[in-house]
């Protein structure tokens, strides 16, 4: 079975939503991604935590088919994010950020991970992502995540990365910013013109759009009525997408179905604080929601 490699952040989050508060919840982009992807394929994780990171989280990750050989435990404290969601929870307000050990982290891909065929370059500066990419040996499919900060401050470096990866996975607002437009249709064309082979555009409750030179495909989101914490939805979407693609062997025709499974995993992620729901979701539950989305697409 194909393995998936994720390089990104592992965090301890404080989360506030209209449904309550969770302190020191397991979080981070790599964590949400890895747990979602592990439902489809074995996952290898590269990241950093501090000496304060609970051992129980590491044991949980191992139990979920996630190889943590590349998880560095450094002197200092784990990256922490305190976020608050209010109203319809469409946007997060950052209360505080403590980079801690993440501030000086330079990812080192273990030799045993370097030939992993499916890779997510998690949200980080383009320079760090390039350094990771240069440590890999012939990956079959590389997905790139980024954010508004890097688009605005390191645009040139980011643009040099686009032609070197297979897919860019960003949300709708980030796509508009990257394309320097206010039109979603123009953003798709511009990002492909910038050298991206494939754009996967996350649109929250409105689903996700896959765009290539050959055309577009949009998957609806699963209409869950229990939204407790949206924090990990986007990373869980990416994990479900790339995990399913790895399971399917990366066949070209599998990418549309992979988007559906990404939408399914995003729908589970929001139902509890942090990673709690993704940790317990079963394959049967996943397939039930995937069939529901496929029914929505049937005419």
Distance between the termini: 34 Å
For the largest sheet, list the strands in their spatial order.
Answer: 5-4-1-8-9-10-11-12-13
Instruction: Using the CA coordinates, give the radius of gyration.
Output: 18 Å
Strand elements, count: 13
> CATH homologous superfamily name?
Ribokinase
Can you tell me the overall shape? globular
Which architecture per CATH?
3-Layer(aba) Sandwich
Task: Write the H/E string, N to C.
Answer: EEEHEHEEEEHEHHEHHEEEHHHH
Q: Which CATH class applies here?
A: Alpha Beta
Helix-strand makeup class: alpha/beta
- Average per-residue pLDDT, rounded, comes to 95
Strand content: 25-35%
What does this structure look like?
This protein has 299 residues and is α/β, with parallel strands linked by helices. The protein is 36% helix and 25% strand. It has 11 helices and 13 strands. It has helices at 29-37, 55-63, 126-133, 148-153, 155-161, 172-179, 184-193, 233-247, 254-269, 276-280, 283-297; strands at residues 4-7, 11-17, 20-27, 43-50, 66-74, 80-85, 92-98, 118-121, 141-144, 167-171, 199-202, 208-212, 215-219. The strands form 2 sheets. It has a 9-stranded mixed β-sheet, with helices on both faces. Helix 1 packs parallel to helix 8 and helix 9 (254-269) packs across helix 11. The two termini are 34 Å apart. The mean pLDDT is 95.
């Amino acid at each position: 079975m194909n393995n998936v490699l994720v390089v990104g952040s592992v965090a301890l989050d404080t989360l506030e939503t209209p449904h309550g508060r969770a302190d020191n919840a397991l979080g981070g982009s790599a964590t949400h991604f890895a747990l979602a992807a592990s439902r489809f394929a074995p996952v290898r994780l590269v990241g950093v935590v501090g000496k304060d990171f609970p051992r129980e989280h590491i044991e949980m990750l191992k139990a979920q088919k996630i190889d943590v050989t590349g998880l560095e435990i450094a002197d200092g404290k784990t990256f922490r994010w305190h976020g608050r969601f209010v109203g319809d929870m469409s946007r997060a307000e950052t209360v505080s950020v403590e980079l801690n050990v993440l501030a000086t982290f330079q990812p080192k891909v273990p030799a045993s991970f370097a030939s992993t065929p499916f890779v997510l370059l998690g949200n980080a500066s383009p320079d760090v992502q390039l350094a990771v990419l240069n440590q890999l040996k012939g990956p079959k499919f590389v997905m790139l995540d980024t954010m508004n900060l890097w688009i605005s401050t390191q645009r040139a470096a980011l643009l040099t990365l686009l032609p070197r990866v297979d897919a860019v996975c960003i949300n709708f607002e980030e796509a508009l910013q990257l394309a320097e437009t206010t039109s979603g249709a123009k953003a798709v064309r511009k990002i492909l013109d910038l050298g991206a082979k494939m754009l996967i555009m996350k649109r929250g409750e409105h689903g996700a759009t896959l765009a290539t030179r050959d055309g577009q495909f949009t998957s609806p989101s699963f209409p869950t009525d229990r939204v407790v914490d949206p924090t990990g939805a986007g990373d869980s979407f990416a994990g479900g997408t790339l995990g399913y693609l790895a399971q399917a062997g990366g066949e070209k025709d599998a990418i549309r179905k992979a988007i559906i499974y990404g939408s399914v995993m995003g729908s589970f992620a929001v139902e509890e604080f942090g990673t709690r729901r993704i940790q317990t979701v079963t394959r049967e539950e996943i397939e039930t929601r995937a069939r529901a989305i496929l029914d929505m697409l049937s005419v």
